[in-house]
Design brief:
The structure is a homodimer. The first copy, chain A, has 7 helices and 10 strands. The first copy, chain A, is of the alpha/beta class. Chain A has a 6-stranded mixed sheet with strand order 6-7-8-3-9-10. A 4-stranded antiparallel sheet of chain A has the order 2-1-4-5. In chain A, a hairpin with a 2-residue loop joins strand 1 and strand 2. In chain A, helix 3 packs parallel to helix 5. Chain A is globular and about 45 Å long. Chains A and B meet through helix 5 and helix 6 of A and helix 5 and helix 6 of B. The structure holds adenosine-5'-triphosphate (2 copies) and magnesium ion (MG) (2 copies). The site of one magnesium ion has 5 residues of chain A, from helix 1.
């Protein structure tokens, strides 16, 4: 499903080069709940961005669903993302000029040509599942931090993607709201075989993982089978 | 130190009025670690904004350090904040055109007229204490989520404020980074008698609290003495 071979990622800052990822080797085959953990700054978001086709490695190859995504043009990457992926951003990235409902509707219109009544059914299903149906007409600036986070979650899931990249999806949520999200993801894994790759500091999510990769300073320093 | 009397906060949305806070009564006297907990959307950020003079109640009074802050003009509120308060925002609110060092330096220049070498000592002290001294020349767009959060923490503390409002200050942090922050705050309470009011979902922070207020749907539904 996801494969990384000899992947590195450097950021150039004037004369200096920051090595955000060093010599990454990953092979995610049939596991559908994979979690990356590690200290702040260890490279989790950078790694998710490479798998999610939002960025390219400095060297090495990234395969998703058989496609060498590091070779795609920007246009092809956007198309690939729209078709197969869902991305929950660490800072949400909601469109400020769209309401909750419109933000979640956006990927359905942009990429998937779904009829209006079918769209509405789907959007309301996911808004209900994450507990923010009553916020559907508000703009992001009128939402609490955890409400924005849940809009980001609903938007990533509404297209029923093959693979969801979730960057700290519960960071701003209380216990109960977090469990709603986890339950929704469990249900999608069961019913649609959706695969999830998390970057997280939340032990509630790590507990669900089948495989846990530990990152430190841009390197993978550990890989273990989850308790679930 | 902080007193709220019959405070309400409504947000008007066209014809509808959202009651974000209803009939809030709070008296925080000598406790220096107070935590607000409650579900996403229950009103924690709204409450912190009122105490931190960033917003005004729809009715009722808010007293901080004896001053009726709900009666201050915008200019007076800004001055009051600069003199007594530190605020850690849920979404960080870093200035994108300033580096880490400059973001933390900002309140020292704007409000407190501290000499250059004394400023440098202080800034480096707090950057070290939260673990991001090596990120001092980067811009916010070049930082990880948890690094941005720690810049926000350092900036709020660098002026040695009387009262710190911390809105989910550890949401994006791993265990060890979160404990660095908690330890720094404990030390400031001990050495400077700094008072802290948290809004948080993090049990590590709630464990430190002397008083825990529970919010639900804009109301205070519980108040208990902390375990510490
Ligand atoms: N400008 C606004 N207009 C309308 N409603 C608002 C506005 N700002 C906040 N609200 C609503 O007020 C309620 C309380 O918001 P608040 O941000 O205080 O919650 P919170 O407890 O901090 O939540 P979280 O844990 O998710 O950060 C929410 O239901 C939110 O949607
Ligand atoms: N555009 C950039 N330029 C320079 N350095 C960068 C850039 N983007 C990220 N970095 C650095 O790369 C490292 C890894 O960042 P990344 O965002 O992947 O960390 P993370 O594991 O997601 O951290 P967190 O848990 O805090 O979110 C960090 O040290 C960060 O400062
Ligand atoms: Mg990150
Ligand atoms: Mg909040």
């Amino acid at each position: 499903l996801v494969e990384l071979k000899q992947v590195t990622k450097d950021y150039r800052m004037g004369e200096i080069s920051v090595q955000a990822l060093k010599d990454i080797e990953i092979d995610i085959d049939k596991q559908s709940f994979v979690s990356f953990v590690g200290p702040s700054g260890s490279g989790k978001t950078t790694l998710l961005n490479l798998i999610g086709c939002l960025d390219k490695p400095s060297s090495g190859e990234v395969f998703v669903n058989g496609t060498a995504v590091n070779t795609l043009s920007n246009k092809e990457a956007a198309q690939f993302r729209g078709q197969y992926l869902g991305f929950i951003f660490q800072n949400f990235n909601l469109l400020p000029v769209l309401t909750t409902y419109e933000n979640v509707e956006y990927p359905l219109i942009m990429v998937q040509n779904i009829k209006a009544n079918e769209r509405k059914k789907r959007i309301m299903h996911y808004l209900d599942a994450v507990g923010i149906a009553d916020q559907k007409d508000k703009y992001p600036s009128q939402l609490s931090g955890g409400q924005k986070q849940r809009v980001a979650v609903a938007r990533a899931l509404v297209t029923d993607p093959k693979l969801v990249l979730a960057d700290e999806p519960t960071a701003n949520l209380d216990h109960d709201s977090a469990f709603k999200i986890i339950e929704l993801m469990r249900q999608m894994k069961r019913d649609f075989k959706t695969a999830f790759i998390f970057s997280t500091h939340d032990p509630k999510i790590v507990k669900e993982a089948e495989i846990i990769y530990t990152l430190e300073d841009g390197k993978i320093v550990g890989k273990k089978i989850g308790a679930s």
